Amino acid sequence: MESLAGRAYLVTGGGTGIGAATARRLAALGASVTVVGRRGEPLDAVVADVERQGGHALAHPADVRDPAAVEAAADAALARFGRLDGLVNNAAGNFVAPAERLSANGWRAVVDIVLNGTWNCTSAVARRMIEAGTPGAIVSVIATYAWTGHPGTVHSAAAKAGVVAMTRTLAVEWARYGIRLNCVAPGPTETEGAGAALWADDADRERVLASVPLNRFASAPEVGDLVGLLLSDRAGYVTGSILTADGGQSLGTQIYGPPIADAAAPTASAQ
Ligand SMILES: CCCCCCC/C=C/C(=O)SCCNC(=O)CCNC(=O)[C@H](O)C(C)(C)COP(=O)(O)OP(=O)(O)OC[C@H]1O[C@@H](n2cnc3c(N)ncnc32)[C@H](O)[C@@H]1OP(=O)(O)O
Ligand SMILES: NC(=O)C1=CN([C@@H]2O[C@H](COP(=O)(O)OP(=O)(O)OC[C@H]3O[C@@H](n4cnc5c(N)ncnc54)[C@H](OP(=O)(O)O)[C@@H]3O)[C@@H](O)[C@H]2O)C=CC1
C-alpha cells in the first residue's frame, strides 16, 4: 500500500466528484490536503469529512482561471502545512455542443478552466517546490478524447490535449528538480458534474454505458486511488505518462456486430 504520510498536496476542484474523492484518498494515505474550487460550501464539507477521519485539510475558494487567486491558494497551503509536495489538476468545465454552434465565450470558458487553469496551478505549485528544493509529483485528470477526439467536445478535447503536451514537456524540463508529472484519463465516471454536463437524460446515459466494454461507469474513489498511486513513491520512476482507466472505452469500436462472442461460439450442430 502506498503512503503519503507527512506530505501536502493541493487539489483543484476538490469539493466535488473525482476531486473530493481524491482529496479524501490522499488524506487517508496520510497527506494534508488543500482543496480549491469556486464555491466554498462543498470545499468545507470535504474538509469536515477529512477532519472527522483524523486527517488535515484546508479549504481555499479560488478560480483557477485567476493567476493571482491561484498564487494566494498556494501561499495559503504553504502557510498552513509548511510544505508542498505536489498538485492534482482536477478542476474542469464541460458541456456538449456542436462545434459550429459553440460561441467564442463558450470555447474560452472551457479552455480557460482546463488548460490555462492547469498551467496557473502547475506553475504556482512547481515554482514553490523548486524554490524549497522539494521533489514531488503533479497529476492532471484528463480524458481519453485528448487523443481520440470526440464530436461535441472540441473545446474540452483540445484543452485536455494541451494538458497532455504540458505534462510531457514539463516531465522532461523539471526532472532535474525531482518533479514528476503524469495524467490519469478516466472513462465515464459517476459524478454529479459529469452527469449534468454529459449524460443528463436516460438515453444519453445508456449510450455512454453501451460504449464501455466493461459495461459500467467508474466510481470517483476508483479514480482517486489511481491519482494517489501516481503521487506516491511507488510510481517514482513514472513520469510523462498517461494512466488510462476507461473500462476499455477508447480501444475502438467493433465492426463485426455485437456480440461477437456469441456469433463465434460453436453452434450445437457444429459440436
Ligand atoms: C462522452 C463520454 C466521455 C467521457 C469523458 C468525459 C470527460 C470530461 C468530463 C468532464 O469534464 S466532467 C466536468 C463537468 N463539470 C463541470 O462542467 C462543472 C463546471 N462547469 C461550469 O462551470 C460551466 O458549465 C462552464 C460553462 C464550463 C463554465 O461556467 P462559467 O460560469 O464560467 O461560464 P458561463 O458564463 O455559464 O458560460 C460561458 C459560455 O459558455 C456557454 N455555454 C455554457 N453551457 C453551454 C451549453 N450547454 N451549450 C452551449 N454553450 C454553453 C455560455 O452560453 C457562455 O457563452 P456566451 O453565451 O456568453 O456566448
Ligand atoms: N466524470 C467523468 O466522466 C470524467 C471526468 N473527467 C475529468 O475529471 C475531473 C473531475 O470531473 P468530475 O468530478 O466528473 O466533475 P465535477 O463537476 O464534480 O468537478 C469539477 C470541479 O471543478 C471545479 N471547478 C470548475 N471550474 C473551476 C474554476 N474555474 N476554478 C476552480 N475550480 C473549478 C468545480 O467546483 P466549483 O464549481 O465550485 O468551482 C468542481 O469541483 C475533470 O477534470 C474532468 O474533466 C475525465 C473523464 C471522465
Which compounds are bound in this model? ligand LOHRUJSQ, NADPH dihydro-nicotinamide-adenine-dinucleotide phosphate
Count of DSSP H/I helices: 10
Largest sheet: 7 strands, parallel
CATH superfamily: NAD(P)-binding Rossmann-like Domain
The H/E string reads EHEHEHEHEHHEEHHEHEH
Strand content: 15-25%
Adjacency order of strands in the biggest sheet: 3-2-1-4-5-6-9
Report the mean per-residue pLDDT as an integer: 94
Topology, number of strands: 9
Give a concise summary.
With 271 residues, the chain is an alpha/beta fold.
Features:
271 residues, Rossmann fold, lipid biosynthesis, globular, binds NADPH dihydro-nicotinamide-adenine-dinucleotide phosphate, oxidoreductase, SDR_fam, two-stranded parallel sheet, 9 strands, seven-stranded parallel beta sheet, NADP
Would you give an account of this structure?
It is found in: Peroxisome. InterPro entries: NAD(P)-bd_dom_sf, Peroxisomal_t2-enoyl-CoA_red, SDR_fam. This protein is an alpha/beta fold and 271 residues long. The chain has a single domain, classed as Rossmann fold (3-Layer(aba) Sandwich). 46% of the residues lie in helices and 16% in strands. It has 10 helices and 9 strands. The N and C termini lie far apart (48 Å). The model has no long low-confidence stretch (mean pLDDT 94). NADPH dihydro-nicotinamide-adenine-dinucleotide phosphate (NDP) is lined by residues 12-13, 15-19, 37-39, 42, 63-65, 90-94, 113, 117, 141, 143, 186, 188-189, 191-194.
SSE layout:
Blueprint: E1 8-12, H1 17-28, E2 32-37, H2 40-52, E3 56-61, H3 67-81, E4 86-89, H4 104-132, E5 136-141, H5 145-148, H6 154-173, E6 179-186, E7 189-190, H7 192-198, H8 202-210, E8 218-219, H9 220-231, E9 242-245, H10 260-264
Parallel strand pairs: 1-2, 1-4, 2-3, 4-5, 5-6, 6-9, 7-8
Helix pairs in contact: 1-2, 1-9, 3-4, 4-6
Bound molecules: ligand LOHRUJSQ and NADPH dihydro-nicotinamide-adenine-dinucleotide phosphate.
